[in-house]
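[Help] Beginner question about ligand-bound structures

Sorry if this is basic. My supervisor gave me a protein sequence and a SMILES string for magnesium ion and asked me to "get the holo structure". I don't really know what that means in practice or what format the answer should be in. Inputs are pasted below exactly as I got them.
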Amino acid sequence: MAKPSPEIALQDRFRDDPEFFHREVLGHEPWGKQLEISRSIRDHRNTAIRSNNGSGKTYHMAREALRFLYAYGPEAVVINTAPTWTQVENQFWRNLRDAYNKARYPLGGHLLKTKLDIDETWFALGIANDEHNMEGFQGWHAKSMLVIFDEASGISPKIYEAALGAMAGGHTVRFVLIGNPTQNSGPFYDAFKDPTFNKIHISAFDTPNVQAKAQIVPGLVTWDFVEEVRKKFGEDSDVYRVRVLGEFPQRASDTLISIDSIERAFGADRELQSQDDDTAGLDVARFGDDDSALVRRTGNTAKVEWVVNGNNTMELAGKCAMYLRANKTVRLYIDVIGVGAGVFDRLREQPDITDRVFGVNVAGKPRDDDYLNIRIESWANVRDWLRDAILEKHEGFYELAQPKYKIASSGKLQLESKEDMKKRGVKSPNVGDALALTLSRATEGENLGIVFLAL
Ligand SMILES: Nc1ncnc2c1ncn2[C@@H]1O[C@H](COP(=O)(O)OP(=O)(O)O)[C@@H](O)[C@H]1O
Ligand SMILES: [Mg+2]
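Answer (accepted):
No worries, everyone starts somewhere. Holo just means with the ligand present. The predicted complex, written as structure tokens, is below.
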């Protein structure tokens, strides 16, 4: 028998010994779970990986895409997608381009922004998660195929179906679903109950920096992050489960707003709606250890302007007055229960801004009878608003997934009180409340009738 050519022998090695490719060719040192992922891709048709945030999923998968291409070509195709185009282009492909450019040997082929071409039937390609434009999922007839869904919780079931169809023809097919398990329904969730998938779980506690409580690999999740989420949300919270433990949320049903709907809104590629409604909400700290937060919502976009510790009435009023003078189109809604009343009164005394300052008594009567008070009504408004919203990413927005709701004895829906949240170790949702204020009914202030019409 003739000896295989050196290239073939090398390809066999790339296939059989993923670590060799990552180390020797890319100069990349995968950590344990990253290697487990590579071995699963070597040995299994389908792999599903649920993981905490910042475990190096995208980093490693982009490098696996290169390994697959050079180990299985010619006639090898790698396709990747993610919920948003930003994730495809600026995360996955930024990693792939970086790995390609820094490889220790020239890899060959022609590298574009979201495509790596070796020839007609030998390439890697990024595809958008767009149900209306699924051509990308047609017409691959490659001998070997790897399909990667990054942040798989957020990928549309229709794209999933299309990918299954497209993979039907290949000889060597590898399908990888990887992501933060934000949603307990949909194809990603189902994969963990599907016997045809090899399943991998990664928790922050498996990762090198958290294990060592020191920075071993810059960029990977840290011990401080784990502690921060634990202190803020509590160990039994869904936020901790999803982001630190890499577990699916327990029951999305008893919290009003799902983590998934928040993450989908972060930097979302969504159409910008009318910016006429320009409203800020101020949530004033109630307890000594709490923060006061100002969130601005303009049409379907929102961002956290600032979060400050404490509730000094004069300081907060001064900060808000400055803010209103600098942002002439903003109307400010303040929760007037407790300390907030002092801030409201102080701002109302100032003639140049007084008509842009409104008070909300969140215990007041809502417009919709199904709700117990304005507080839950405005949180429900946030839930609905989030479907088309664009949030500027801020950790505080995760608070929206915290409060539970229940049915009060009157039969009306009621939101968990800040005090009850405190009791189960969850910090009060200041950013969440501030955003909710921008979608609530004002109970105090000038020209309330006009505000009603605007909402
Ligand atoms: N094996 C590794 N070696 C060096 N740096 C790594 C490694 N894995 C991950 N990183 C670093 O961690 C960062 C976060 O990884 P990323 O893939 O974005 O996490 P995830 O997709 O899990 O949220 C990367 O940008 C990179 O800097
Ligand atoms: Mg990622």
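A couple of things worth pointing out: The chain has 17 helices and 16 strands. The longest helix spans residues 85-101. Feel free to follow up in the thread.
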